[in-house]
Amino acid sequence: MPSASGEARMTPILKTAVATAALSLALACTGSAFAQQATPPAQPPITLKAMGSFHIGGKTVDISGKPVKEVVFSPGGVPAKIDPNGTYIAGQMYVQYFIPQDQKGTVPLLLWHGGGLTGVTYETTPDGREGWLNYFLRKGWAVYNSDAVERGRSGWAQSPDIFPGEPVFLTVNGPFERFRIGDGAGSWSDDPAKRKVLPGNQFPVDSYIQFVKQNVPRWTTTDDFILDAYSQEIEKVCPCVILVHSQSGKFGFEMAQKHPDKVKALIAVEPAVTGDPKLASKLAGVPILMVYGDYIATDSRWPTIRARAMDFVKLVRDAGGSVDVINLPEKGIKGNSHLIMMDRNSDEVAGVIQNWLVEKKLTR
Which Gene3D superfamilies does this one have (predicted)? Predict the structure, then answer.
């Protein structure tokens, strides 16, 4: 018979098998929940005048000194010689646009996502509801939704030759514990019944694994590529309104400082970083809305993040700028995670943003 200490003597292979089985069970349970969710209420079809996509940004980079290799692209295929030396294009960004038949926004709306994510952020929510892309289309906005450089359909470049360092990958538990869904470190469990969700949380926890599947690797060394691509998007598409989230907060503020004549408003949903304090006066003519969710005061990082943002807000206001800060719980909207656009009350928060845009006379 196994001894009481048998668990401590489990082989690495057995431990891996047990962990894999537990995660598979979690995936199965979540997948079942996703498949069995209630059908979203029917809405009128969205009528488009046009839709399409383009790549923008990127630059040529030369690589040399690499060995020529033989590569078999498919099992059983004929080997091909691949010479990695030559000229590449790197740092390009994919943008998809949707132009509604009845446009009510006076300028286009650009959606920029956060770290480890793609434009999927604003598409269908993890539990199958329409996301903010559809919401703002229905309100008559021409929407430009992008995958930032090195994400999604924008593609990678050689690392470390072009992208320095290594990409950062997210674990299954990471966002649950850091994005104010679970109650901090250790709140995730492969067993759904043992997950410690923050009380009243609005994130669709039963569909959490569906969210994890949209996470992608990210670099921490590609800001210059990203900023260059966003700047070129602004030159091509704007004047415009830009909506940013988390990591892209830095990019949105810096681009508004660079193109204050083209950015007619900036909406920052829980920005991780803001703009250059020395250039705060550049934002004096750009209306800014900042939106924060719940549970911030008890989080390990977000009180500091928000406090730094408020220091920046003061600089902009002192320079004559207009910044509205909405802490959702103070408006009676409670339970929002860091992923506000995916929370169950995402439409309610989108309505707050839409009303602000109307007040700023950015709609017809």
Answer: alpha/beta hydrolase (3.40.50.1820)
Q: What distance lies between CA 45 and its chain's CA centroid?
A: 26
On whether the CB atoms of residues 161 and 63 are closer than 8 A, the answer is yes
Q: How far is CA 264 from CA 210, 229, 248, in A?
A: 35, 19, 17
Domains along the sequence of the chain with CATH: 48-58+88-166+212-359 (3.40.50.1820)
Residue 6: phi and psi, rounded to 5, are: -60, -35
Please name which of 251, 247, 212, 250 lies closest in space to residue 228, comparing C-alpha atoms.
251
pLDDT number for residue 176: 98
Element housing 86 (H / E) = strand 86-100
The reported pTM is 0.89
Mean pLDDT across the stretch 214-229? 98
Cα-based distances in Å from 129 to 43, 57, 124, 164, 200: 11, 32, 6, 38, 20
Phi, psi of 251, deg, nearest 5: -65, -40
**Alpha carbon distance 95, 72 (integer Å):** 32
* Helix orientation angle between 248-258 and 223-237, rounded to the nearest 10 degrees: 50
